[in-house]
Amino acid sequence: MNAATEPKTNLLGLDRTGLTEFIVGLGEKPFRARQLLTWLYKRRVADFGAMTDLAKGFRERLAAVAEVRLPEVLSEHVSHDGTRKWLLKAAASADATAAPLQAIEMVFIPEPGRGTLCISSQVGCAMDCSFCSTGAQGFNRNLSTAEIVGQVWLANSLLGAAADGARAVTNVVLMGMGEPLANYRNVLPALSVFMDDLCFDLSRRRVTLSTSGLVPQMYRLAEDTNCALAVSLHAPNDELRNQLVPINRRHPIKELLEACWHYLDAQNGRSITFEYVLLDGVNDQPEHAIELARLLRGRDAKVNLIPFNPFPGNQYRRSGREAIARFCDLLHERAITATVRRTRGDDIDAACGQLAGEVTDRVTVRLGSKRFGMAVEA
Ligand code: SAH
Ligand code: SF4
Fold this sequence. Notes:
Layout: E1 9-10, H1 16-25, H2 32-42, H3 56-65, E2 66-67, E3 72-78, E4 84-90, E5 102-111, E6 114-118, E7 122-124, H4 133-137, E8 139-142, H5 145-158, E9 171-174, H6 184-195, E10 207-211, H7 215-224, E11 228-232, H8 238-244, H9 253-267, E12 272-278, H10 286-296, E13 301-307, H11 321-333, E14 337-340, H12 354-363
Parallel strand pairs: 1-2, 6-9, 9-10, 10-11, 11-12, 12-13, 13-14
Antiparallel strand pairs: 3-4, 4-5, 5-6, 7-8
Helix pairs in contact: 1-2, 5-6, 7-9, 10-11
Bound molecules: S-adenosyl-L-homocysteine and iron/sulfur cluster.
Iron/sulfur cluster binds near residues 128 and 212.
């Protein structure tokens, strides 16, 4: 392949280490990476020609071999409560059996003093959790680091953050489509870009990775980074969790919790959030709350109770208000910190995945009536 046909490197796919190597490979001094990162992330400038403190020859070389390419917006939806959701086009995979149109979602949830962006890490998911329609859609492909970082870059740009460098996105949660730890290789550099003070400069508590419990990767994560961790528990015993979160058959609750406490110790972290989707009559009974409290007692743990987001073709129902309140009270009575996640953006299907599912349904016979479905942190 000659230089003219070789694909350009998307710089959003490189963290500080990767970019430094890239720059050195072009024959430039390593410190140029700092300048370039400042242009890209502090000033949000993507045009190399405008990067005036870089030598003209270097700018031309960059333009020839590199680019800043963002995910393409297919549609935008704004809720009456200010929640915004974008359906983004993920470039088609080389795999001929993959769906022809691949869509991912990101959701922005504004709150006083902060703006949370919920981003995707994969197109589809292989974990097959029984209450999740991203899971029902199956695994399509991993997102690249550039596609993961590009979501935050794009959101800041679409939200028109002030030119003084203030950004709309103050918190990033990997709770959209996909299992981030199943795409470890591409997610790790993205976490680094989110937290690097030369890039998005978000503190470790403002970047949350949510996992269904890939235990070996949780140990790796403890070595490699220190972002906040959320764990999708959803059941207080193995019998029930095996049904809801099939990865539990490989890594049961005891093993999962050991990995959680190890993560906290290794990272000197403040606490782990346990997500618990409340499914009517399935995992929302008082005995479940009592059993859950027993698992977490005395630990640095918070429980985030999530009202189930129904989607067509799924057998579960959202728990009633009373059941949710009772569950939460039973945890509080046992000194477990618990909150009920507010549902946001209901009028625009802001539960990550639902719009993507609709688009995919229209274009793929293979997927039939399966839809994506995901909750967002509110
Ligand atoms: N794969 C990761 C991260 C994405 S899922 C994980 O499972 O943690 C983000 C959160 O949304 C998880 O806690 C997941 O269990 C929850 N979720 C999935 N489907 C849902 C639904 N239909 N209603 C409510 N929450 C759902
Ligand atoms: Fe995948 Fe998370 Fe959905 Fe389970 S809940 S299928 S891990 S996206």
